[in-house]
Design brief:
The chain is α/β, with parallel strands linked by helices. It has three domains: 43 residues, 434 Repressor (Amino-terminal Domain); 135 residues, Rossmann fold (3-Layer(aba) Sandwich); 133 residues, Response regulator (Rossmann fold, 3-Layer(aba) Sandwich), CATH 3.40.50.2300. 46% of the residues lie in helices and 17% in strands. The chain contains 13 helices and twelve strands. Strands 6, 7, 8, 9, 10, 11 and 12 form a seven-stranded mixed sheet that branches. Strand 6, helix 9 and strand 7 form a beta-alpha-beta unit. Helix 6 runs parallel beside helix 7. The radius of gyration is 23 Å and the shape is elongated.
């Protein structure tokens, strides 16, 4: 028969109440007790029954996605997937909601995270720019027993938290390879556009892009990153100024998750058809732009897969199970008009 919690308590030499606190991630449990319980789990092969535990506790898994307010079409797709799964998983004892915060306000995000009550939430999936304030707030959440998933963009020095998203260095390197091959022997400059370079995914994509361009395509010169901060007017002004001052731009790389507004600003000054253009994320705009030739390639990650993976990881962590890495690895997809 499957070992019970009572068997686990006996094997660990602890009270059933202490074992229950360890299994449910409650605070005020010594590291010694946690070590004894984990050792006993391995020794007797204890496996938690998540459904039985949830029924016994008479409560659901409670997860929240914390997303930015900006992001245009790709953010809308993420929100749609979160809401779909929130509805679909209610019958599976899983409550999912979301909030949207201003990503430019690191102190505001940190304050919001500090107010989260572990009695109200079991896990959070957080999409926020890298900052010491946010990183420290997430670390304190984990100390409270709340499971944290860094969603699509993470904090560089927070290895204890899970991450869901593509390999952003590889994605940027892929963009560099495509642009280098498409431009060919032509020398020129590459305009690089980001929403913010405070975001770890943007930093990693830029690093991968520069590595490939500098190593393999010496005839191309990547320009300093343009930051739009999701401000249409600001972005249009800066982009038009750069295009006017650099007549030899041969390619455009939009490394943020939304290309619609940056490319609208480019097309107001230059003919996109004469440039090599690579963007990120599959949206109605990027699909249309691929079809009509304004964009040459889209580097994408499946938003539905990302949302499902974040939920699976949070559930596994709540149940003290190791997530299946292969199942939750987000693939980097490269889309051309020909394979759309």
């Amino acid at each position: 028969m499957r070992p019970t919690a009572r068997d686990l308590a006996e094997a660990a030499g602890l009270s059933l109440a202490t074992v229950d606190r360890v299994l449910n991630g409650r605070p005020n449990v010594s590291k010694t007790a946690v070590g004894k319980v984990n050792a006993a789990i391995e020794r007797i092969g204890f496996v938690r029954n998540p459904a039985a535990v949830s029924l016994a506790r008479k409560k659901s898994y409670r997860f929240r996605f914390i997303l930015p307010t900006g992001g245009d079409l790709y953010l809308q797709e993420l929100l749609r997937r979160v809401e779909e799964l929130g509805t679909a998983l209610k019958s599976d004892l899983t409550d999912i909601d979301h909030v949207q915060l201003q990503t430019e306000d690191a102190h505001g995000i940190a304050h919001y995270l500090s107010e989260i009550d572990p009695d109200e939430l079991d896990g959070v999936a957080v999409m926020a720019p890298e900052s010491p304030q946010v990183r420290d707030a997430l670390a304190r959440l984990m100390e409270k027993g709340i499971r944290v998933v860094q969603f699509l963009s993470g904090q560089e020095k927070l290895p204890a938290a899970d991450f869901v998203g593509m390999d952003n260095f590889a994605a940027g390197a892929t963009a560099g390879k495509i642009i280098g091959k498409f431009v060919g022997q032509t020398t020129g400059k590459v305009m690089v556009i980001a929403e913010t370079m405070q975001s770890l995914d943007s930093i990693q994509r830029r690093h991968g892009f520069d590595t490939v361009i500098n190593d393999a395509f010496p005839g191309l010169q990547p320009l300093p990153s343009i930051e739009t901060h999701a401000n249409e007017r600001r972005g249009a002004q800066i982009i038009s100024r750069v295009l006017e001052n650099h007549a030899d731009i041969a390619a455009v790389y939009v490394l943020s998750s939304e290309a619609r507004l940056p490319l609208a600003a480019v097309s107001a000054v230059a003919d996109l058809g004469t440039l090599t253009v690579v963007v990120h994320e599959r949206t109605p705009f990027s699909e249309e732009a691929l079809r009509d030739g304004r964009v040459d390639a889209v580097i994408a990650q499946d938003p539905g897969h990302a949302v499902r993976s974040a939920i699976r990881i949070m559930r596994a962590r709540v149940d003290f199970r190791e997530p299946l890495a292969a199942q939750d690895r987000i693939r980097t997809e490269v889309l051309f008009r020909e394979n759309l």
